Amino acid sequence: MRTPHEHDASAPVGVRLRAGPGWRLDACAVDVDDIARSQRDWRLEYSQLSAGAYAGGLQHIQLEGLRLVSEWANRGLRQRGQLDTRTVGFAIARSTAGCARFHGVAASGDTLMIGRGDDIDLTLAPNSIHVGIVVERALLAELWRGIDLQPCSRGQAAQICVAARPGHAAALVQAQLQRMRELSSDAAALREPAHLRRLRDTLLLAWLEALPERLDLAAPKALQERRALVQQVCELAAPSPEPPPTLLEVCRRIGVSPRKLEYCFKEVLGMSPRQYLRAARLNGVRRELRRGRDARSIADVASHWGFWHMSDFAADYKRLFGELPSHTGRSSRAWLPA
Fold first, then answer.
1. Among 60, 159, 251, 294, which residue has the fewest nearby CB atoms (within 10 Å)?
2. What is the DSSP string of 104-116?
């Protein structure tokens, strides 16, 4: 899949350009942690879920009260964390390899994902691009009276997925990418407050006009229960010197049948519990190897995450990340744009 901004992702790169009332951030990387850390003011953790060497990139353009976002990746990812707690995000994700999942709800390329900035849980298919805006709630309140995403009451969702009005999703994605390309090629435009306000208002209204006439904010009880169950199981992927529990042991601890566990994971994350938990632990190993803050061996780090058979671990690691763990340790380096 071609990248929307033609980044060369052969090596970690980050550039942040400031000019007048707006700024632009471009980043590309070959490790998901680099992309996550490049997004200043936001606290995000990325985990790679599909096999192969990762390459991805993003662009952010900050306007008054609103940030334009586009991001692409060649591998499946899970993104969790927080944006600015005073914001609401709108996004559309598109992929040739499947749908996204926003807080456990499947989202096709014609779905608008909407949520408060204080809690983000987005799973993306391989070869994806997602485009969105992150807008301050104070600005949004002036224009949009049909929804309240303040801390929600019982039964009201803080993150929702809705079908865009027919024909709006594709046009909205193309329009925003075009505006971002124009701002990228004309640095002087970021120093023109009046122009930036007009652009901000035009794009924000385009996102609001893509919404259906009525929004259902009710969070189905069954979905809440499935997400809670998945979260309980995901906590078992935390580092531990003990061997990881088998799926039957997980089922006994949580009090569910293997069939129900499988169903919940497929619905919420789009993969089996076995696949997800192994990927989560492998991502944990990779983060520790890239930090390289102590003298622990690869075997020590792997066993800390529950991998006891080194040959199987190395094969699984290479299958997921496209390199051996020994290479990760040698090439480890963190970066942030200036």
1. 294
2. TEEE-TTEEEEEE
